[in-house]
Write a structure and sequence with these properties.
The chain has one domain: Gcn5-related N-acetyltransferase (GNAT) (Aminopeptidase), CATH 3.40.630.30. About 40% of the residues lie in helices and about 25% in strands. Helix 4 links the parallel strand 4 and strand 5. This is N-acetyltransferase domain-containing protein.
């Protein structure tokens, strides 16, 4: 079986297990549903109808996960510079109440299969390094690895998820044909680094989103602390190689 066939198989299995059907954006009604779902998740508009339609017309990625007729997940990405053969996955979200069904995993595997059929072997995106469940999903469940720390990347966002905190982000690179990614997407175990003398752990809070709501000053202090520790480690060549929900990021200092 070819790698393209394996990617399609893995994507299909994940969607079936999640109880959803994933398909690319087809018409204006589906585009409006995507925009409405993003508004429901983030509490503010993230994209306009005109821009979404232009993205898809230009051959970019926009797909939704459907539970029957209901849109419950969305993922949108666009191409980077042509020579990079990389897709930038700009936004992905799942409807409230859909936790535990792995809809997000099904969407990402659909995106991976879509990219590979077009000769794209790398997908990149950003996420908040303080959100441990997202770090675990990206690094462990998908096999993607952070490659750059981006302080206050978007500026103040003032939405239901980010609040008024600085928008520090980690840029992750998903090398779609890497052995750890192939294993993760197939649902099989891959060897995870355990750390040693040449590595360091960088902790994250148990639930930064709850902390932002209860104690914004404490959340901001976590932001400053993680930035002060993780940004210089990565800037000097340290590589994030794993994440643990209790221990945080594992940074390999051998470079």
């Amino acid at each position: 079986m070819s790698m393209l066939d394996l990617a399609a198989r893995d994507a299909g299995r994940r969607a079936e297990n999640a109880g959803v059907v994933i398909r690319e954006l087809q018409d204006l009604n589906e585009a409006q549903a995507m925009i409405d779902l993003l508004l429901e998740i983030w509490g503010r508009p993230l994209i306009t109808m005109e821009f979404l339609r232009a993205l898809t017309k230009a051959g970019n990625y926009a797909a939704g996960a459907y539970d029957g007729d209901r849109l419950v997940g969305v993922c949108i990405g666009f191409h980077e510079a042509p020579a990079a053969r990389t897709l930038h996955s700009h936004v992905a979200g799942v409807a409230p109440g859909m936790e535990g069904r792995s809809v997000g995993m099904a969407l990402k595997l659909h995106q991976r299969a879509w990219a590979l059929t077009r000769g794209i072997t790398t997908i990149e995106w950003t996420y908040d390094p303080l959100v441990g469940r997202n770090a675990y999903f990206n690094i462990v469940k998908l096999g993607a690895l952070p490659v750059e720390y981006l302080p206050n990347f978007y500026g103040a966002m003032h939405d239901a998820i980010n609040g008024a905190d600085d928008s520090d982000r980690l840029l992750v690179r998903w090398s779609l044909l890497a052995p750890r990614v192939v294993a993760a997407c197939a649902g099989t175990r891959f060897d995870r680094p355990t750390g040693g003398p040449s590595s360091r752990r960088v902790a994250t809070p148990p639930d930064i989103e709850a902390l932002r709501a209860a104690d914004p000053a404490a959340a901001a202090a976590w932001r400053r602390g993680l930035r002060a520790e993780l940004e210089p480690l990565m800037a000097s060549g340290g590589r994030v190689v794993d994440f643990d929900l209790d221990l945080g990021y594992l940074v390999d200092l051998e470079y």
